[in-house]
User: Fold this.
Amino acid sequence: MPVPAGGDELIFSNDLTQPVGMLRLLITDTSDVPADQLFTDEQLSALLAMEGHVVKLAAASALEIISRSEVLISKKITTQDLSTDGPAVAAELRAQAKALREQAAKDRSDGGLDPTQALLPLYSFPAPVPWGDSYL
Assistant:
């Protein structure tokens, strides 16, 4: 959440050990200047809450929001030697959001473990030995 810094100024969190900071990193909203950031910490916290506090799902939602905004604002414009293609940018943002959703689903299906992570070996123990008269 933004933190008051003495006056009315708000400080935005880029702490990469916190979910909001991780979310900012995934959507490249990492400016230290609050006016240059796309989302407030409060907005990102709301996305995290809506997506069950799964950072990748919240990032996918944020990218989808940016995508919709890009389509509404930029459109496809060509003038003299300058052109912008808002729909193409929006399509790429949606593709990135889809990839994040797929990664999050994979993380859930494999228990969140990296497949290259070394696991402790599993040992099987021998069957119990019957303690009859033969051992006495």
The first helix runs from residue 19 to 26.
